[in-house]
């Protein structure tokens, strides 16, 4: 036996940063969001008039602001991982400061989403309004749930801050970023 009996061979996943199980979860989540995106596109193609009229009530500026917030958060997560990798055993804990900043931006994202939902509901746009708003709330709400889960994961990996843990948390958070970067133009901008 070689000295690596404890490490499983995950094939191509073994070379990815973090725990391979997170990458299996990420692939599953990307498949779910991919199905939602396809469903949204097909439903839009079947009823473009309703979708265009309903989409006009969304606040593209808030969606764009949330895009900048999440991208900035993802950048801070990358900084945190890089700082942890370059100073694995030293007293410098600047990686925790970067990760805390990333989490703060995650909470800002959620706060903006709550403001947006309150505005839409206040105007009478609920999931029962039409198929556009049903899919809007489903997709953005499901994404917001992933932001909440991502914040929990980031909190755990900031507390238990081994490099592997931080890379694992970063992988999930970057998936959350990627989904929003695709979701924002699909739901808010494309006509």
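-> sequence recovered:
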């Amino acid at each position: 036996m070689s000295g690596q009996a404890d490490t499983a061979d995950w094939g191509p996943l073994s070379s990815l940063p973090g725990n391979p199980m997170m990458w299996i979860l990420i692939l599953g989540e990307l498949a779910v969001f991919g199905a939602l995106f396809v469903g949204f596109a097909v439903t839009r193609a079947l009823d473009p008039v309703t979708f265009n009229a309903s989409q006009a009530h969304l606040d593209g500026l808030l969606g764009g602001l949330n895009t900048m917030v999440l991208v900035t958060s993802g950048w801070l997560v990358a900084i945190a991982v890089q700082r942890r990798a370059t100073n694995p055993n030293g007293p410098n804990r600047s990686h925790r400061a970067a990760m805390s900043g990333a989490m703060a931006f995650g909470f800002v994202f959620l706060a903006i989403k709550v403001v947006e939902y309150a505005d839409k509901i206040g105007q009478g746009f609920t999931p029962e309004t039409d198929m556009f708003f049903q899919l809007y709330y489903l997709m953005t709400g499901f994404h917001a749930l992933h932001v909440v889960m991502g914040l929990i994961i980031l909190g755990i990996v900031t507390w238990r801050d081994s490099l592997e843990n931080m890379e694992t948390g970063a992988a999930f958070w970057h998936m959350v970023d990627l989904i929003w970067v695709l979701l924002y133009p699909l739901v808010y901008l494309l006509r």
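The longest helix spans residues 94-122.
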